[in-house]
Amino acid sequence: MRGTSVPADEHEQALGALRHQVTQLQTQLAELARRHERTSAEVFQITELSKEVFTLKESLKAQQAAPASSKEEEALRGQVIALQQRMEEAAQEHGAVVALYRSHLLCAIQGQMDEDVQCILSQILQMQRLQAQGH
């Protein structure tokens, strides 16, 4: 193929198509990054809720050891139950997000993505290898 030239308009069209595909891939990457951030925030929220539940349980134990009014005790128990429910809901949501993220990654690993995307990713990898080699 060396020595043959490609007409400038074909070259520009191919280049434009590649740029468009790169833009699409960058958009997809940004979306995955946003999803990752959201997942990280959910993990942080679950951790914070766990800490709060633990603190309230400890407070409840301390209240049980000391004489306390039944209203205070009932309020603390209600808070513990509500926080446990919130923590379970957050854990379920987090699990669903992680499962979706894993399924997307699994499809990508198994090659179950559009041929155009695979082609572009291969070209990007090839360009990166050439740049790393200093060409």
Please give a handful of descriptors for the protein shown.
3 helices; 135 residues; mainly alpha; P-loop_NTPase; rod-shaped; 87% helix
Describe the structure.
This protein is an all-alpha fold. It has one domain. 87% of the residues lie in helices and 0% in strands. The chain contains three helices and no strands.
Kindly summarize this structure in a few lines.
It comes from Phodopus roborovskii. This protein is mostly helical and 135 residues long. The protein has 3 helices and no strands.
Give the SSE order as H and E letters: HHH
Low-pLDDT ranges: none
Give the percentage of residues in beta strands. under 5%
Query: Would you tell me the overall average pLDDT?
Result: 80
How many discrete domains? 1
Q: C-alpha Rg, in Å?
A: 27 Å
Largest sheet: none
Number of strands: 0
**How many helices does DSSP assign?**
3
State the separation between the terminal residues, measured CA to CA: 19 Å
Structural class: mainly alpha
Which outline best applies? rod-shaped
Helix content: over 70%
